[in-house]
Amino acid sequence: MKRPFLVDGEEWVAWASGGGAYGTGNRGLGNVTAVHFARAAAPDVPVLEALLAAGRFDDLFDNELIQLFGTARKIVDPADVPVRPMGRRTLSG
Q: Which of 51, 65, 77 is nearest to 6 (CA)?
């Protein structure tokens, strides 16, 4: 389900795009959901992503969604990243 919302007069849409688990230690892993954000003018082209505790997205209030948007990071397009050969690493002792 895509949720429309406004930030500084610009309309955006957000949706839960997938999930996973993260963490270490004795308490186990925490489940997270990746939330994608796209401009309403191009709703199928996500430009930002944020992580949220699993199962929370559908219950977010609008102000919480806007706060999550504020923490989102730009999605890196692999085409924008130059391919560099791996260099040789040496250990000095």
A: 65
